[in-house]
């Protein structure tokens, strides 16, 4: 039996394990520089920046998580951004992931969001097929851009 509930601080060690499992699946485990301590601070400190749901099996074993936050689009308004959506590999294909994903969809409506956004790797065919069941629009023509803090510091300190 599967259940979905709001995540609490005590869930973070297992959630962080799931994040690492996702990074391994996405062939980028070395890219995870986040830590459990950072997640505790950023999710449960004075200014939380993310929330999450956990997916449990038999009301005790966490087998999935959906980590999200809100962003603002000047074109669309308030949007829910699904940062990570993870179901442990051995539990995939059993309907549990659908339950978790649909809970996030519901949350976007509860919070008066104009929609929900996320990313999927172009080679992740099982995920793409799953999302297409929801009539998901997958846009092209955009690059994902990011700078690491060290790069930003170098730029800012150079006073360019």
From TrEMBL:
Protein name according to UniProt: GNAT family acetyltransferase
Database matches in SUPFAM superfamilies: Acyl-CoA N-acyltransferases (Nat)
The keyword DNA damage appears for this protein: no
One MF annotation (Gene Ontology) recorded for this entry: N-acetyltransferase activity
CDD domains the UniProt entry points to: NAT_SF
Gene3D superfamilies: 3.40.630.30
Lineage of the organism: Bacteria, Pseudomonadati, Bacteroidota, Cytophagia, Cytophagales
Keywords annotated in UniProt: Acyltransferase, Transferase
Similarity section: Belongs to the acetyltransferase family.
Domain of life of the native organism: Bacteria
Domain N-acetyltransferase: 2-160
Family annotation (InterPro entries): Acyl_CoA_acyltransferase, Diverse_Substrate_AcTransf, GNAT_dom
